[in-house]
Write a structure and sequence with these properties.
Largest sheet: 3 strands, antiparallel
CATH architecture: Roll
InterPro entries: GrpE, GrpE_head
Number of domains: 1
Protein name: GrpE protein
Distance between the termini: 75 Å
CATH topology: Nucleotide Exchange Factor Grpe, Chain A, domain 2
Order of helices and strands: HHEEEEEE
Pfam families: GrpE
Keywords: Chaperone
CATH class: Mainly Beta
Shape: elongated
Length: 121
């Protein structure tokens, strides 16, 4: 309780000044974003074992890999990196392979996966 009899709630004051807690939260979120981006950069250059460990660590904080093999290619969600010709009509337009995994942070796409797509021969 403050000297004037009101409780301190930790919310921003009436004049719009952020509290220290708000500033620390903003800083922590910005640092988290920077660290996640650094992990993605390192992941692209790492060996298979290190990739697995980085992905496990990212997953533990809500950042998940997007491997979309077998899904229908969607240019709004996937980046085409190549094509594989096929005579199988059932495969046309499906993702044959995820070349570079994408990543999602609790539902927000950080980067789209780069994929190879089956196309008609």
């Amino acid at each position: 309780m403050s000297v004037n009899g009101t409780e301190h709630t930790g919310l921003a004051s009436d004049d719009g000044v952020e509290t220290i807690a708000d500033e620390l939260l903003d800083q922590a979120l910005a640092e988290r974003r920077a660290l996640v981006q650094l992990c993605l950069y390192a992941l692209d250059r790492a060996s298979a074992g290190v990739v697995e460990r980085i992905e496990e660590g990212l997953s533990s904080i809500g950042v998940t890999a997007l491997r979309v093999d077998g899904e229908r290619f969607d240019p709004s969600r996937h980046e085409a990196g190549g094509a594989v010709p096929t005579d199988d009509l059932a495969l046309q337009g499906l993702v044959a392979e995820t070349e570079v995994p994408g990543f999602c942070d609790r539902g927000r796409v950080l980067r789209a996966p780069i994929v190879t797509v089956y196309t008609a021969r």
